[in-house]
Amino acid sequence: MYYFPLQPPYFLLLVGFLTALTSGIALSGTLKVIVQKWPSRTENTKPSSSLKQLFVPFLGITAGVCLFMSSGLEIFGFPSLLALGVGLPISLLTCLLVWLQLGSMLTFVQTKGMQSLDLDTEG
Questions:
Q1: Cα(97)–Cα(28) distance, rounded to whole angstroms?
Q2: Number of Cβ within a 10 Å radius of residue 70
Q3: 31 and 61 in contact (C-beta within 8 Å)?
Q4: pLDDT tens, 41-87?
Q5: How would you classify residue 59: left for phi > 0, otherwise alpha for psi between -120 and 50, otherwise beta?
Q6: First CA to last CA distance, the chain
Q7: CA–CA separation, 110 vs 17, rounded Å?
Q8: Which of 13, 30, 39, 50 has its Cβ near the most Cβ atoms within 10 Å?
């Protein structure tokens, strides 16, 4: 009789998903507060101070996505070590690229204004 020592990590998949979801909601709320405070700022304020406030919620999203990706690969039959070896670099690289894009978009919006992101209007 063949015995599976570990069941697929459905619980870890759910924990990773909920961690990423709740951290995303926190990131959204923090970003809204930062953008609402922009008109009252002086021109000397750098966008890097805004990124410091967003780092902890984004770190939670990154951890949740890594856990979700690795657990999902393990559910689909990957061995634990291989699932971690594939899921971790993919998740970290994707989150790093999103972080860099978020920083550049915050800088762009702060210098050019929020109207520069409106793609629907002609002109």
A1: 18
A2: 25
A3: no
A4: 555 556 667 788 899 999 999 999 999 999 999 999 899 999 999 99
A5: alpha
A6: 72
A7: 32
A8: 50
Share the mean pLDDT of the chain: 85
Locus of tokens 């951290």: 23
In contact, 66 and 88? CB cutoff 8 Å: yes
Count Cα atoms within 13 angstroms, Cβ side, for 79.
2
d(CA 43, CA 23): 30
69-79 pLDDT tens trace: 999 999 998 99
SS3 40: helix
Interatomic CA distance for residues 70 and 77, integer angstroms: 11
Residue 96's Cβ-side half-sphere holds a number of Cα atoms within 13 Å equal to 6
* Residues across the chain: 123
C-alpha R_g of the chain:
19
pLDDT at 23: 97
